[in-house]
Amino acid sequence: MGAVFVISLVVALAVAYRFVGDYMYRVVAGTKHSAVERVAYRLVGVNPSGEQTWGVYARSVLAFSAISILFLYAFTRVQDKLWLSLGFDPVTNHVAWNTAVSFVTNTNWQAYSGESTMGHLVQMAGLAVQNFVSASVGIAVAVALVRGFARSRTEQLGNFWVDLTRITIRILLPMAVLGAVVLMVGGVVQNLSGGTDVTTLTGGSQHITGGPVASQEVIKELGTNGGGFYNTNSAHPFENPTTWTNWFEIFLLLVIPFSLPRVFGRMVGQNRQGYAILAVMATLAIASIVLTNVFELAHNGTVPQAVGAAMEGKDVRFGVSNSATFAAATTLTSTGAVNSFHDSYTSLGGMMPMINMMLGEVAPGGVGAGLYGMLILAVLTVFVAGLMVGRTPEYIGKKIGAREIKFASLYFLITPALVLVGVAAAMATGNNSTALNVGPHGFSEVVYAFTSASNNNGSAFGGITVNTWWWDIALGLAMLLGRFLPIIMVLGLAGSLARQVPTPASAGTLPTHKPLFVGMVVGVVLILIALTFLPTLALGPLAEGLS
Amino acid sequence: MNGVAMRPAQLWQSTPDALRKLDPRTLWRNPVMFIVEVGAVFTTVLAVTDPSFFAWLITVWLWLTVVFANLAEAVAEGRGKAQAAALRKAKQETVARRLVGWGTADVREEPVDAVQLKQGDIVVVEADQVIPGDGDVIEGIASVDESAITGESAPVIRESGGDRSSVTGGTKVLSDRIVVKITQRPGESFLDRMISLVEGAARQKTPNEIALNILLAALTIIFLLAVATLQPMAIFAKNYNAAAPDSLTINGDGVTGIVLVSLLVALIPTTIGALLSAIGIAGMDRLVQRNVLALSGRAVEAAGDVNTLLLDKTGTITLGNRQASEFIPVGGVTAAQVADAAQLSSLADETPEGRSVVVLAKNEYGLRARDEGVMPHAHFVPFTAETRMSGVDIDDRKIRKGRQRPS
To answer: Which Pfam families does the record cross-reference, listed alphabetically (chain A) (predicted)?
Structure first.
């Protein structure tokens, strides 16, 4: 069954690649503005036909995100005075900071439990709005980078406000509406109920909150956000009732990241370049999904062996394999939704989500973030390969010189630095004591938290209390820096690429659409990550899983 | 400059240079090796304060890494220096015939080393001599072999006055006699510039090298972080396994400094960083072995980016030594007749080209060189730069070789 589940997903994504990719290409490359969009531009005071240099584009991204964070922070702090608060208190200052940063950075790390902290208004007008626009920001930045490859002799990278508006209105909204309907058909709730009190099987009393779950659930997956309406996220029956909604949610969270290489191929005028990037993503993703399944199904460890399956922390609705596939998919993208608890996975099975995130979430990665991350890695690979040939390397006709490498290597430097420094700081200051476990597993819990935050994933290993002052601030910083520093590097790279005159391909040019190149990119990704994180992994999951 | 593999002697010769490069002020330009050196100093201190076999082993190993990295560069540079020395020697061996008292009635000739020539000196150069320095012809006319500089294989005419008066040091006069006024300052001649290029004194980093250095620096920072942040994690792991005995590697205070430094050196891209500068010079060296003179490592790399090649002259270092290789008869004459006539006309031509005709005639047709004594009626017309012709008059028979100078 697990195999059918995975193979049907691969087939569905393969079919969607061209349709969704071509549709998104038409949206970002089009020149017409719809009436709704024109009204929006007039309201904000933006000239939709004016283009921006990379500096202006970056400042627009930062300004938009800064305002979003301030708004969200204020919104959650005064929620008790607004409608539909369900009587909840205002969110404490450090949790509000953490949450605001988390949703604006497309991370959706949740240092709170949704159904008992956030009222319906905050969920709908605050968090869900960010689920849309933070995803749009990611796609917009990726599109700006692709424009850098596609254009020449120009400083212009497009208009951030136009990209943001179009992507939100024409791509995410219609797909979210369609998806929400499908989810409601599947049994996901959608109401404004304050909840009902029920008597449980054991005779106790439980308060079950309803709410606008389906609308939130769909964008949570589609925009690779991952912030659940409920604390238990996609394991909650109101969010993810059946095996086929589980399949559909995985499809939703993979469909845009996997289709973006098509946009890349179309924009640079060579579809085969898009296929090459897709092949790298698919190779890493399939390998990861298979390995996670293998580790989980092998159920090494005392308890799983005693009970015959690694079912701890998993829901019987989904079973081991479909939970493992969800775990791999959610960490391969920057979603971070969970339908099972990664902390309870077997040691090596629990290591796979960690490795997926440590890869920089490029296979296929978050919406937009995955494509620009992968393109940066492709640039680095072209450079390393070019040195072997002994000529100035070029990718899609653009020379990779000192300036390009500066941006690319800084991009690559940021996230591992945040993870390693964060983990070391937690260990050195003793803040790891909030972890539930001691020894290697407790260590894994700390590593997972910082890996998830720095890579803007947002999934939680669990087993660690992170709504303390220190954790909220530290993880908030990791999310903030892990999102916007790389974005600045990406836009800088786009700017210097767009300025160049394209070099015609010659006999000495490394073909970047052949299997050889795909293999090289995979190799570069794996080697760089292995060298960086092997010592850390050795002390955590490897120590636990191999002892 | 023969292409030879690296000899052990070169290693020894380069060792002092390699040790000199250990100076942190020069080494910091290569961040990767600089970090290795800092690590080596650190482990040395640790090994001295707390000696153990392991500590000294690692220390020695680290120092060897740094020295060998420098050695590779020193050897590469050393080969450049050897080539430069050969060029310099050639320059020093040239003896100039300086004319003292030029312009007066009492003109004397004295031999001096070419390197000692000053601006304004007057020298005389005759056929088969090398012009000792850059200058202007102030008297006479000569055909000069400038192939070493320009690549033109045919000799060129240099004469006083006009725009064909300048001559370059290192070129060779093939016929006649000229008087040259030296215009170069000592140490600024064409040959000097070539020596400085080969020596690598003005070695620039190639664009790829600059970009690679940035990437390596970024990787070094990542691995530095990976090692530095290992310490708190290790302390945590050690405290959890308190029963595990302390070892040289790890104790209650975490991983020992020596092990951390070793891990760092193993992780950072030491090899590439160490060899970067050597690669550029090695590339030039490989080309020299194939008789191509690359002026810089940058040029070697730029060659990889060439899309279109436009050829003007033959290469820069060609020997302008035209040699006769075959007699081709036309009309009703035989090859032997051609050879006979060619030989006769070339007997009075003392340029390499003329001599080669005589040699070829002897080798192919057994025609021996005849001089005026053998042929009583012959009147030889010697080759000069003015006529560009040589030949012989035997009674009424006139044989001429060459072409009329275009007027």
So the answer is: KdpA
